[in-house]
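Retry 2 of 3 after timeout on previous attempt. Resubmitting structure tokens to design endpoint.
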């Protein structure tokens, strides 16, 4: 062969394949899949951020990558990304947490300056607004911020159910009720995705505890599974198609969720019609082949073993390339939608000022007024305030772990009150600053991290006589603080329950100020439910502020001063005591040990489960979670689900229910009979006809909130409920069933405060059969017997 021919052949070999490479467009997905090597496909299904995530440099990780794969340059500390393939026009998907605002580093490598994100109220606070329009607006703002920073998918919302008050991540989640959680998630996902930014609804599914979160087997019947734990996900998928779903760490009735085709394909895709991708929760290494086969499209944050595993298993015939292609196809479909693919350049300058104002507005609507004896609130004739409790001076914006946000600031209650024009006792201010400085100094040598946050500063012991002798304000405000976060569940002593110092502080301050003819307000800046029954009689008012994001102190000041009238209501039950919850006996409340960073984290090299004695959780309570239990069995509570006071008062009238094409439409008129303007969240519960399947005495089926009603003003609220939404899951038939008969539609200010009702008659029973999947391998009651 002549030298010239050699060169021509070589050139052809180099150029022809290049010229033939298709570029990714909506019309070339199949061609691109055909053009990809098996290694390229496998690498696309495995995230690209392991090294960076663990503080190492990306180069330090011995990846054996296809030469064509391009690593995303993670300069702003995003949670994860996929690989890009420039020669095929495939761009990376850039993902960042989380539910209360974006979690990015403050400094971005190679750029001057500091880049902050807005800390919004946590999920529980958002849901407590019962205002889906507001939550939608937060979603829009979060989407705008993500776009401005070049993030394609926000790893939010968190939407697991509050099965038990001690779950360490409840603050990220909405409610103990699936309908409320589902509606909130729909609003949030709709808002974020309106900005062409994707969401990752998480953690799918039954991720109800943090103890041994990466290996725990959650054992439950399919009725509780479908009616409670999957319901909110079903709603959000059917209504707004989140771009991604994040599969949880735990197992359900045996298999890991990430390896379970029944969950990820049969239910999620075949039954609900999910069109996006499933991404695994971070760092749990599973059987990658099984994940791909199950429809877990993306392994995050990814490491080379997973990529090699896919390749090896396809080569050995253990995994079909068609399964790999199905995941690749879905990943490409998501890539096509991203702003990165569409070439939108990050501006790095979101409107943080407007977002802070929105955060404050939503925060002031998410607080729940639990007590207001003698109408002590809003504060009247108050110029000076005596401020007690560490947390008054260091307000907690949100929880720890991946739900944390690097905001520019958090307004403390002290600053919020002073901004509202109140004067504070300087003696107390000095005392608390000295105490907090001293406590900081004590812990300087300790090192804390995102999954190992600093424990709370213990409350300062104040001598009773000193409190009596130092009253200078017109009113006393005490803040009680609690924080929590992923990897650890909360505990009963000194967390669910007050500490001895906190209890003493409330007692002594109330005694002293009441003796002086002055009032006491307790503000709860907490991440979850705490015990209130033992001390709630002492103060005059209790404002459950939750965690309110960066504008917390301002929002509380708005509520205390009356600038805003509280209109939040509880999205979960406050029991008299922890063990009143039936799930308590099957929750690792007494587990003492390391946090659940997880036994399967490859970077630790650990083989054995860290948490040996907590390997499964029986959901013995079945459907009787939260108010479904308390109201059905007539158990007293401290504050019921749906409860929340207002500075106004509301009368309900003219309840009506009309049969519609697929269920009923209900209306009720709400009138503000109070002295000030306010909003009211009305809850629609339904009691089913007796005789059929056992059901809770009432279940939330819809809700609506009025606009700001002036004194004397009325509004008619309407609600649509379909027959499918009335259905319960019949395990024996593996079908959703709505019984025929007479239903009662109840309009309530809370689950225990039903103001009026109307009948609804369904003449024909309805049934929707579904696949018989995910059943526990043994009957739940047999398992229960074995553990007794
Ligand atoms: C959390 C997820 C989070 C992910 C990425 C995991 O530890 O469980 O909720 O999105 O980390 O930060």
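Retry 2 succeeded. Sequence:
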């Amino acid at each position: 062969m002549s030298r010239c021919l050699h060169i021509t052949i070589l050139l052809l070999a180099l150029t022809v394949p290049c010229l033939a490479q298709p570029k990714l467009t909506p019309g070339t997905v199949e061609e691109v899949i055909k053009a990809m090597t098996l290694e390229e496909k496998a690498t696309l299904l495995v995230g690209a951020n392991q090294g960076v995530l663990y503080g190492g440099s990306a180069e330090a990780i011995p990846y054996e990558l296809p030469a064509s794969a391009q690593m995303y340059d993670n300069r702003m500390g995003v949670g994860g990304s996929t690989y890009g393939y420039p020669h095929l026009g495939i761009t990376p998907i850039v993902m960042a947490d989380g539910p209360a605002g974006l979690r990015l580093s403050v400094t971005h490598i190679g750029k001057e300056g500091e880049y902050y994100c807005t800390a919004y109220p946590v999920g529980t606070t958002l849901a407590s607004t019962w205002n889906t329009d507001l939550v939608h607006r937060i979603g829009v703002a979060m989407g705008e911020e993500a776009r401005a920073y070049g993030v394609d998918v926000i790893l939010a919302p968190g939407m697991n159910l509050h099965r038990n008050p001690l779950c360490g991540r409840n603050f990220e989640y909405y409610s103990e009720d699936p309908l409320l959680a589902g509606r909130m998630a729909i609003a949030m996902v709709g808002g974020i995705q309106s900005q062409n930014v994707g969401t990752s609804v998480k953690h799918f599914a039954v991720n109800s505890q943090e103890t041994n979160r990466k290996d725990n087997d959650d054992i439950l019947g399919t009725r509780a599974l479908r009616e409670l734990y999957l319901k909110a996900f079903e709603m959000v998928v059917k209504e707004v198609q989140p771009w991604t779903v994040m599969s949880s760490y735990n197992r359900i009735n045996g298999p890991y969720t990430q390896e379970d085709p029944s969950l990820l394909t049969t239910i999620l895709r075949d039954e609900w019609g999910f069109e996006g991708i499933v991404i695994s929760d971070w760092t749990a290494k599973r059987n990658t082949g099984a994940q791909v086969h199950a429809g877990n499209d993306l392994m995050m944050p990814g490491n080379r073993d997973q990529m090699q595993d896919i390749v090896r298993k396809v080569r050995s015939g253990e995994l079909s390339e068609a399964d790999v292609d199905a995941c690749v196809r879905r990943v490409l479909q998501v890539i096509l939608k991203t702003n990165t693919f569409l070439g939108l350049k990050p501006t790095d300058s979101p409107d943080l000022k407007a977002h802070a104002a929105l955060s404050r507005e939503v925060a002031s609507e998410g607080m729940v007024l639990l007590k207001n004896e003698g109408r002590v609130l809003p504060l009247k004739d108050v110029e000076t305030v005596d401020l007690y409790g560490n947390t008054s001076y260091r307000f907690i914006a949100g929880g720890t772990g991946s739900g944390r946000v690097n905001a520019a600031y958090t307004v403390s209650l002290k600053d919020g009150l002073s901004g509202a024009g109140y004067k504070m006792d300087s003696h107390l201010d000095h005392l608390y600053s000295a105490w907090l400085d001293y406590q900081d100094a004590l812990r300087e040598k300790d090192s804390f991290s995102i999954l190992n946050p600093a424990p709370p500063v213990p409350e300062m012991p104040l001598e009773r006589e000193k409190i009596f002798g130092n009253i200078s304000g017109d009113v006393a405000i005490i803040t009680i603080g609690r924080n929590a976060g992923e990897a650890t569940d909360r505990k009963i002593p000194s967390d669910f329950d007050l500490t001895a110092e906190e209890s003493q502080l409330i007692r002594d301050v109330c005694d002293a100020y009441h003796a002086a003819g002055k009032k006491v307000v307790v503000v709860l800046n907490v991440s979850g439910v705490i015990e209130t029954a033992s001390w709630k009689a002492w103060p005059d008012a209790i404002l459950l502020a939750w965690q309110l994001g960066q504008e917390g102190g301002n929002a509380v000041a708005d509520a205390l001063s009356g600038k805003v009238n509280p209109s939040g209501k509880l999205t979960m039950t406050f029991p008299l005591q922890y063990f009143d919850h039936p799930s308590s006996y099957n929750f690792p409340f007494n587990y003492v040990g390391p946090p659940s960073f997880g036994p399967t984290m490859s970077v630790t090299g650990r083989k054995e489960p860290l948490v040996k004695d907590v390997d499964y959780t029986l959901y013995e309570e079945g459907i009787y979670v939260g108010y479904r239990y308390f109201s059905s069995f007539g158990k007293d509570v401290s504050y019921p689900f749906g409860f929340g006071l207002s500075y106004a008062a509301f009368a309900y009238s003219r309840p009506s229910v009309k049969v519609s094409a697929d269920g009923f439409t209900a209306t009720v008129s709400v009138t503000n009979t109070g002295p000030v303007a306010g909003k009211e969240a009305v809850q629609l519960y339904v009691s089913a006809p007796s005789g059929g399947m056992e059901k809770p005495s009432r279940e939330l089926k819809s809700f609506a909130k009025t606009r700001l009603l002036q004194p004397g003003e009325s509004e008619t609220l309407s609600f649509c409920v379909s027959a499918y939404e009335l259905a319960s899951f019949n395990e024996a038939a593996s079908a959703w069933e709505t019984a025929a008969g007479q239903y009662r539609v109840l309009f309530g200010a809370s689950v225990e405060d039903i103001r009026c009702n109307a009948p609804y008659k369904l003449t024909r029973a309805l049934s929707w059969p579904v696949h018989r999947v995910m059943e526990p391998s043994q009957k739940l009651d047999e398992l229960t017997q074995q553990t007794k």
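Attempt log closed. The pocket of beta-D-glucopyranose is lined by residues 79, 97-98, 155, 202, 281-282, 402, 486 (CB under 6 Å).
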